[in-house]
Amino acid sequence: MIDFITTLLSATLRIATPLLLATAGQILTQRSGVINLGVEGIMLIGAFFGFFFAYISNNLLLGVLGALVMGGLLGLLMAFLTVTLGKNQTVSGIAIWMLGWGLSSLFLKVFFGLVSVSLPQRFPIISIPLLSQTPIVGVIFQQNILTYLSIVLAIVFGFILFKTTLGLKIRSVGENPRAADALGISVYRIRYLCVVLGGAMAGLGGAYLPLAEVGTFSELMTAGRGWIVVALVVFSKYSPYQAVSRALIFGAAIALSLQIQALGIVIPYQFLLMIPYVLTLIVLAFTFKRTKPPGSIGVPFKRGA
After folding, report:
1. CATH number 2.60.120.10 is the correct assignment for the domain at 2-114+139-287
2. Global pTM value
3. Which helix (H) or strand (E) holds 142?
């Protein structure tokens, strides 16, 4: 039983990491008034280029940098479509999703063909002295650097959003961009910053999978995590602080389904694979009406219009 609990705790943190990284970034994006439904595609691009740059350079940090840059570029494209051109955010997000999906599959075939390649190394486990020796819960403090970083970044983003002038500007732009503009706040600049940063974080979330978890890239390897992230933003009530616990809940649900399969319990595996997505639907159904989104989310802003 102890082994089951420790394995479940460790798996929960690993699985929650890419969700938390992407969710923290998307909370800033949506707080600025832009909803990006292209997260799944951006995570795929981040996963591929994180793997690609790490593979050709044999350097995991270059893989992280590549994922951040490519994710940020897709975020930049999303910002151009929705902020500069004022296009429909839902349609633009779906276009970004399809673009990321298509390009990641294309690049996989172009650069690697049918050959399956793996990284010679992944981010190693870092054990925190003393804490990692604690019975049962010590496994929480035996994680890779990206898992620790995801929690730190969520806290930092929360501090920025709720305790700084920049955070006040972001929330103002998301609530009432015309009032913010009248006060001299650059709505375009704030939204560009948040959408690009959200894209970079989604790219990093995708890169976590090949760089820290599986060591290789496979087609559609994000497996719907980007859509779970969209639900997590609402579930977290647009707060990076709450995103930590909410991501862990989803991580635990996925980890539990995998543990049940490993135990050989006679349940159709297709049913177990449905658990995180059913949970997503339940979360949206019960929290959407009780969670107040930013006042101008999804609404294009045009100065002087």
Report:
1. no
2. 0.93
3. strand 142-144
